[in-house]
Hints:
Blueprint: H1 2-7, E1 11-13, H2 14-19, H3 24-37, E2 40-42, E3 49-52, H4 61-73, E4 78-79, H5 82-87, E5 98-103, E6 114-119, H6 121-128, E7 133-135, E8 141-143, H7 145-155, H8 175-178
Parallel strand pairs: 4-8, 5-6
Antiparallel strand pairs: 1-3, 2-3, 4-5, 7-8
Amino acid sequence: GVRRLLSLPPVFSLEDLEKDGIFSDYARVMVSRWKKSGFINPVGKRCGIYYNNIANNDVSEQWKTGEAIKKVFGEDVVIIGASILYDHFWTVQIPHALTIAVPESRTYKNMNNVVTFSRPQEWFEYIGNTNNKMDSLYNLNSLSPGMALADGIHHGDSLGRLSPDDLEYPDNTDYQDIL
Length: 179
């Protein structure tokens, strides 16, 4: 059992085990035992996706989170809001969770420490055609800080409890580039 866990990636699903030829019922038993032993942690309730705590420890926690997000929500997600502002030192207020945009009209499972905000397909098309999409620590697409601020104000959702007094623009910021 543990040998198989060592061969799995840092983030894996029940489907990954079944692709390796393990019957569904046996895969669930293995996962249950690994959870009880602390070898794995679920990324959320009833997701069927897990963090592998004993294999591939050479990757960052942010990378693992990004991979889990892709497995739960798909490749289309974009990091938005307060998470971006904090990562780029535009605020010292630590967000309670990673904020991401997901395509609307889909049903999603919940993931620990991630908050989702729906955006229309046109939003994703617009973001894909601008220079406001940047790579992040999570190996996911993300908005630039200025775009994250504008998007959060426009949609009124992804900035959490940030107030104007919580924002600290870097000294070298060209305010024409903010929006």
